[in-house]
Amino acid sequence: METLKNINKDLNTNIENIEAAFENCGDFVKRKFAVGKYKELWLYVAYFDMMANNNFIDDNVMKRLITSIRLTPPTMNEFNDDIFEGLKDGGISASDMKEEVNLEAAINSILSGDTALFIDGSDKAIIIASRGFPSRGVPSSESEVVIRGARDAFSEVFRINTTLIRRRINDTRLKLEQSQVGKRTKTAVGLMYMDDLVRPNILEETQKRIKNINIDAVLDSGYIEQLIEKSWASPFPQAQATERPDKVASAILEGRIAIVVDNTPFVLIVPATLDTFFQSPDDYYQRFELASLLRILRFLAGFLALTASGLYIATAVFHPSMLPTSLMLKMASARMNVPFPVVVEILIMEAAFELLKEAGIRLPAPIGSTIGIVGGLIVGQAAVEAGIVSPIAVIVVAFGGICSFVLPSISLVNAFRMLKFVLIFLSAAFGFVGFWIGIILTSIHLASLKSFGIPYMFPFVSGEVNGYSDFKDSIFRAPLFKMRKRPIFCNPDSVNRQGGDEK
User: Fold this and answer.
1) Shortest CA distance to 394 belongs to which of 352, 432, 355?
2) I need a surface site. Which of 103, 200, 259, 304 has the fewest CB within 10 A?
3) What is the pTM of this model?
4) What pLDDT is attached to residue 253?
C-alpha cells in the first residue's frame, strides 16, 4: 500500500483515500452521516465487522452521535480545535479514545479492530478502542498439566494474555513495552518485565533483537523465537515457551523478560538456561522433598531419553561382555531370528515410535489416544512375532520414549529427539568410544552456549558468580524459606526476595 500522509481537512478526500485502501474488502464497514442540532457537521465512521465490537459501536458511538442535540459545531471555516472534547462529552461514551493526525496510523488502528471517526473540516481523527474480535476466552492448560496449581492458560488474544500476567503481579513496576512486528501482519509484540528486577543489559539486548526483526509476517511466537536466537544452529532452545500465566509471572519476578505475541497462546521467556527446562510450576506448590525427588527423576529421564538407544547399541554390538552372562545369553537368543543388525532394528523401532507419536498429535484427541496406545501395542507385538525386531529393542525404544514424556518442556524433548539419532549412529560406528564422543561434544556445546548473555549451563558452570545460591533451585529444590535470593537473571541490586529490604 502506498504510504499515506496526514489526514486532510476535507472529509471527502479522506473517504476516497480510506476506501481506496480497503477496496474489495467485503468486511469493511463505513458510514457517512450528519450530526448536530441542525445536522451541519458531517462525520465518517470506519471499522471492520467482527474485529470491532459492533454492539459497542452502535450503542456508544452511532446512536449517541446521531441522536445528540447538545453538539452545535461551527462552520468549516471557523473550525474549533476543541471538537474532540465536544464529541467526547456530547456524543461518544467511551473511555479509551485518542486523536490521530496520520492517515496511515488511523488505517492501522482500523486493521487492529479499533474504530476511526473522521470529522469534516478537521485534520484529526478520533480513534475509539472498540476491539471485540471472537476469542475462546481463557482456556485450560493442555501441554503443561500440573497436579496442583492454577488451571488457566494463555489464549490467542494479546490483551487477555497481558491481563493474566498483570492479574498475578499487582505492582506498578511491572512494565509492558508494546510494538508491532511484521510489515504485513503488524503483529502486536509486548515485552513484560519488572522495572527494578530486570538486568538493563539483558533488556537492551532483547529490545534490540526485537527491533531488528525485518519480516513480512509474524503468525506465532515461534517466529520471534527463531529470529531472536543468537546461536540459531543449536538444537537447544534459547527461549522458554509456555502457555501458563503462573510460570510467566514467576519468571518475571526472577528478573526475566516475557515476550507476549498476539495470535498465539505461547509466551516466550528470556533468558533461559538448561536448568529452567526441567522445572515445573507445581514444584513450588508442594513440599520440597517431593519436588526434589521429581527433579531428580526428570534429570535422569532426560539423560536416558537421550542415551538409551545409543547405550544399547554400544553394549550389544561392541561390548556384550559388560553384561551379566545370563542377560547376554537371553539377548542373543531373542535376536536369533532377527534378520537385521542391532542398529537397523533400533532405527526401525525409533522410526515407528516417532510416526505413532506424530499420528497421535495430528489426529483428533479420541482417535489420537487410541492410535498411541493400541497402535503401539499392536505394532510392537506384531513386529516381534514376525521376527523383524527383538523384544529387547522394543523395550529399549519404549523406555526412552517414556522418559521423554517426563520432561515438562516440549522444546527440550525435541532437541533430545534429534540428538538421540546422532548418538545412535556414533555408537553404531565406534561403540562406547563414539557414544562418549557424542556426550562430550554435546556437553562442550552446552557449556559454550549462552542465552542473552547468561551461560546456558548455569548454575552447573560459573555458579560462584551468584554465590552458589542457584543450586538451591536446580537438581534439588530447597525449602522456600531457604531460597532467599533471586536467580542469576535478576538485577544484582535487587537479589533479595525474602527477609527484609529487597535492595
Assistant:
1) 352
2) 200
3) 0.88
4) 96
How many CB atoms lie under 10 A from the CB of residue 424?
A: 23
Which has the minimum average pLDDT: 35-44, 102-111, 383-392, 452-461? 35-44
Distance CA 144, CA 282 (A): 10
- pLDDT tens digits along 469-487: 899 999 999 999 899 999 9
Instruction: State the DSSP code for 7.
Output: P
Highest mean pLDDT out of 25-34, 256-265, 278-287: 256-265
The span from the CA of 405 to the CA of 376, in Å, is 15
Strand 174-181 and strand 257-261: the pairing is unpaired
Half-sphere exposure of 72 (CA within 13 A, CB side): 2
Q: How far apart are CA 8 and CA 119, in angstroms?
A: 10
SS3 content of the chain, % helix, strand, coil (to 5): 50, 15, 35
Percent of the chain with pLDDT over 70: 90
Q: Which three cell numbers stand for residue 248?
A: 510467566
Residues 6+ positions from 337 with CB-CB distance below 8 Å:
387
Work out the percent of the chain whose per-residue pLDDT is above 90: 56
Cβ-in-10-Å burial (0-12, 13-18, 19+) of 237 comes to buried
CB atoms inside a 10 Å sphere around CB 291: 21
Task: Please give the pLDDT value at position 334.
Answer: 80
C-alpha cell at 430: 565406534
Residue reference for cell 513440599? 287
Measured between alpha carbons, how far is 395 from 403 in angstroms, rounded to an integer? 12
**DSSP tag of 263:** T
**pLDDT for residue 74:** 47
Collapsing DSSP to helix, strand or coil, 74 comes out as: coil
